[in-house]
Design goal:
With 320 residues, the chain is of the alpha+beta class. Helices cover 24% and strands 23% of the residues.
Length: 320
């Protein structure tokens, strides 16, 4: 798995190129005017989607930070489908945490291409569901499910996503126990200025949720850019709006670079790998837009059995 430093693959350059959008988002939040950061057609699509759920768009930039109680129940439901992705290449040693993944169908897991770039990598990896702390603060029991690329395997290096089948747990598909998050191809799920939420396994730890202190600040045709507390291990995490609709697949944090293009450490000096990832300063995060992932899945050349699984996942999100 690649270190998610975002230097070599252009993410830092894309963030820098979004400076005007990021500045407009800050102004829109300060002036409480979404039109200062979003195009009229974007706002209209978002208004229609929220109106269908009985929600008000203007609340996105107001002072009221309260949410309905269903925010908690919906978030809990979404969180169940999120897993820790681990390497089980060595059967004699404990699993090694790699990243995060999310079920998008009863038997299909979505994560990053850089987490499991090839089918051989997938055969040496597994998804752990329920790897979290329970309501009493105890480490709960979890289930480890092998990945099954021979059943379904789709990967895209450019958008940095992989969809792979997951083996049954106790005789049934993992999604029958943990649920799954629908892939919604329609746009209008998030605007710049809007709050986003990330469910992930930062540092390979028990499942965590980064909520509210996170705004979408820029976008292009492929990527969303946002602020959030993520770390190594967060790659492959689902990024949600406040209605718990998945809007992006998190791929990596973006380090702050100096004038020479080198990463900056928290003390202001040049960052080096020996300092550890958490010693670096991060500008923000980048994730692949779900709508674009769906389009790539529609166009992917697949065997008929794999196509049936992918099409069923896409169809499940078509009416959401």
């Amino acid at each position: 798995m690649l270190e998610d430093n975002a230097v070599s693959d252009g993410a830092a350059a894309r963030w820098k190129a979004s400076a005007d959008q990021i500045a407009d988002t800050a102004t829109a939040l300060r002036e409480r005017d979404l039109a200062l950061a979003n195009a009229p057609d974007e706002i209209e699509r978002r208004q229609r989607r929220l109106a269908d759920q009985g929600l008000d768009l203007e609340a996105l930039v107001g002072d009221d930070d309260s949410v309905g109680t269903n925010f908690l129940s919906r978030g809990t439901t979404a969180a169940r489908s999120v897993s820790r992705v681990v390497s089980v290449a060595s059967r004699r040693d404990p699993p090694v945490p790699l990243a995060t993944g999310v079920l998008i169908a009863p038997r299909l897991l979505l994560t990053n291409n850089h987490v499991v770039p090839g089918e051989v990598d997938a055969t040496e990896a597994a998804a752990q569901f329920g790897f979290e702390v329970d309501e009493a603060g105890r480490e709960g029991e979890y289930v480890t499910c092998a990945l099954a690329p021979e059943v379904c395997w789709v990967t895209d290096e450019e958008l940095d996503f992989t969809v792979v089948a997951v083996a049954d747990a106790h005789g049934e598909a993992p999604g029958e126990t943990y649920g799954w998050v629908p892939l919604i191809e329609q746009t209008g799920k998030a605007l710049k200025c809007e709050v986003l939420n990330v469910i992930h396994h930062p540092g390979g730890e028990r499942k965590r949720v980064s909520i509210r202190a996170n705004r979408m600040v820029a976008q292009d045709e492929i990527w969303l850019r946002y602020t959030s507390d993520t770390r190594k291990g967060s790659s492959g995490a689902p990024v949600f709006n406040d209605q718990w609709e998945m809007v992006a697949l998190h791929r990596r944090g973006i380090k702050l670079l100096d004038e020479q293009g080198a990463p900056v450490a928290r003390g202001g000096e040049r960052w080096t790998p020996e300092m550890g990832r958490d010693a670096a300063v991060y500008m923000g995060n980048e994730g692949a837009r779900v709508s674009r992932i769906v389009k790539r899945l529609r166009a992917a050349p697949l065997t008929p059995p794999m196509r049936a699984l992918i099409d069923a996942a896409i169809e499940a999100g078509a009416g959401v």
